[in-house]
Amino acid sequence: MVNKKRKIIIIIITIILLIILGIYWTSNKEIPLEENEREEVLPSSTIQYVIYIKGEVKNPGLYLIDKDKRINDAICLAGGLTENASLKDINLAAKITDGMMLIIPSEIVEEFQKKISINTATIEQLQKLPRIGPAIAERIIEYREKNGNFKNIEEIMNVKGISAAIYEQIKDDICL
Predict the structure, then answer these.
(1) Element holding 51 (H helix, E strand)
(2) Which residues fall within 8 angstroms of residue 141, CB to CB, at 6 or more apart?
């Protein structure tokens, strides 16, 4: 009998709590915030986004920028481009988004990322390869002129001065 009364009391308390919670959640009461927790409501024209700009800009870092601005505006905000900046794959007219990370690539990096054709490269281009100086670059061209174009990139090891170790260092940077 005591257990039955205890169960009824627990059920009644649970129902009362659920009713109180239901009233609380459905009411339109605004929970007051502390003074330092209140957000200032800005007119829509002055809402700002946080963006991160890095790479080939004069002043990389985090910036606050108006939401209606474009990538070109963000670059100007970061002090403009460096002399090595490449805008080849950057849409200057694209709109800014909140939390955006904008990376301006370097033309120098792009230049090194391109593979060098061992069948058409000049002495200067060949010297951009690791461990290839003017003497070996000249030998590559002499070999090419004497034997015709390379048939595969491994054939470059037939050039005097290019060992298997050097080949391993340059194989990812060369093509036919």
Answers:
(1) strand 48-55
(2) 123, 126
Domains in the chain: ranges and CATH: 45-106 (3.10.20), 114-175 (1.10.150.320)
| Ramachandran quadrant class, 79 (left: phi over 0; alpha: psi -120 to 50; beta: rest) | left
Encode pLDDT of 56-90 as tens digits. 999 999 999 999 999 999 999 999 999 888 888 78
Residues 6+ apart with CB under 8 A from 28: none
Which pTM does this prediction carry? 0.42
H/E stretch holding 13: helix 2-26
pLDDT tens-digit series, residues 154-174: 999 999 999 999 999 999 888
